[in-house]
Amino acid sequence: RITRNDVNELADTLRDGGAISPRDHTILSSPPDRRSFAGPVSSANLINEFQGRLAYDMAQSNIAAVEADTRALAILGRLSSLRDELL
């Protein structure tokens, strides 16, 4: 679980460190579902949110959105793996 503010800070850190592109930053910084983050300090499961958005975008045949959702999930999956290795 992560707050909207934390998502933005994470995206900034990854971009500033050269780990992601400016486009990836934009993808991660845009909330997948605005209802998930009721405010900047409420938290949501970001991976689950992007998975839900991916399913919706696939059903809508929105190829560009599917690519963005898949990209976000790839980045978040790598981060999750790194976190697990460090713990």
In a few lines, what is going on in this structure?
The chain contains four helices and two strands; from the N terminus they run E-H-H-E-H-H. It has helices at residues 4-16, 22-29, 46-59, 63-86, and strands spanning 2-3, 43-44. It is globular.
Tell me what the structure shows.
- With 87 residues, the protein is mainly alpha-helical.
- The protein starts with a strand and ends with a helix.
- A two-stranded antiparallel sheet has the order 1-2.
- 68% of the residues lie in helices and 5% in strands.
List keywords for this structure.
globular; single chain; 87 residues; mainly alpha
| Tally of helical segments | 4
Order of helices and strands: EHHEHH
Overall pLDDT:
87
Q: Show unreliable segments.
A: none
Q: Residue share in helices?
A: 55-70%
Q: How are strands sequenced across the largest beta sheet? A: 1-2
Tell me, briefly, the overall form.
Answer: globular
Number of strands: 2
Tell me the distance between the termini: 16 Å
- Strand proportion, as a percent range, falls in under 5%
The whole-angstrom Rg is 13 Å
Characterize the main sheet: 2 strands, antiparallel
Structural class: mainly alpha
